[in-house]
Amino acid sequence: MDTKHFKETLEKEAKVLESELATIGKRSPNNPENWEVKAVKSDRDRADETEVADDLETLDSNNAVVNQLEIRLKEVNEALEKIENGKYGVCETGGEMIEEDRLEANPAARTCKAHMG
Q: What is the pTM of this model?
């Protein structure tokens, strides 16, 4: 298996994920591994209820996006660690090799097709 190819693919995805996270989030000052949603910037001096509701909805939506991106970034980083320690492409459930077409579809896959959940 060409782990170099998968490493390059995963590194590119990690950069894209970090870039997307940076647009709506920021690294947590308490734990740089975690991301937080940036505050919604409003230039409204006296916002009406609808504007406040819109800002809260945006914040809630951004929080959901940050959470999903953060989960995926964690998966990608774990796959990169596996490449470094020689455990990449091994099913975490059964110990067999993960099919290459599965890794092409999802380079951060943790299980083979038989153990997909």
A: 0.79
